[in-house]
Structure formats: C-alpha cells, structure tokens
What does this fold into?
Amino acid sequence: MREKIVLPASLDSIPRAVGFVREYLSRRKLDSLDKFAIVVEEIFSNIANYAYKDVRKDVELICDYLSNSGECVITFVDSGIEYNPLNTPEPDVTLPLEKRKIGGLGIFIVKKFMDRIDYERKGNENILTLVKKLR
It folds into this structure.
C-alpha cells in the first residue's frame, strides 16, 4: 500500500522523513531500516540544501511496497532546480582521505545501498525513485 507525506524542504524535516519511512517499513515487518534511514537522510538533506535557492518549498516522500516482487520503492518529488544525482561522478574511495575531493560520497552510498535508482524531470519536478528488494 502506497503512503505519502509532504514536508518542508528543510534540514529540520529530516527526522520526520526518516521516521515516516521507518514506520512504513516496521508496520510491514520489513528489514533494512538502518540502510533506508541513511538513504532518506542523505537524499532529503541534498534537496533541503540545494534544490531551492531563496524560497523554501516542499518535498513529497512516497513509500510503496510491491509485495509481488518484494520491492520497497521510495520516491522523492521536489520542484527545485533540475538535478540528476545519477550524473554525480563516483568518488575515488581508494585515495587517502586528504587526497579525496569533497562531495559525492553520500550519493555513492545511496547507490550502493539500493538495487535501482531512477531519476526523471517531469515538468518542473525532480522525481528520484529508489528501489530495494527486501525478500
């Protein structure tokens, strides 16, 4: 069953976003709570920090569990500036910390935790869909 929440695109909303996803998964007795918490925090903070310049708007967060395939689908929808995180170059994690460039590690982690990530720009909205098979 699909559920959604609309929250202000601010760092203060992150605990509510993470809590919403945790509760959704817990009610369905699904695992990967910690991985989803990290992923939701990362994506939501990116939207809060970079999607909107001067005006704060909302983020729609949608959870859906597809019982026939065992996949949990988390979708973020915002009307901020166009940004496809899948185009972010992967950081070279083999380099020593002092030689690494800043940025990109969060998206790298999201890519590693999820089975599939899709991005589309539809009208004036960014739609980022994260899929994780849970059984």
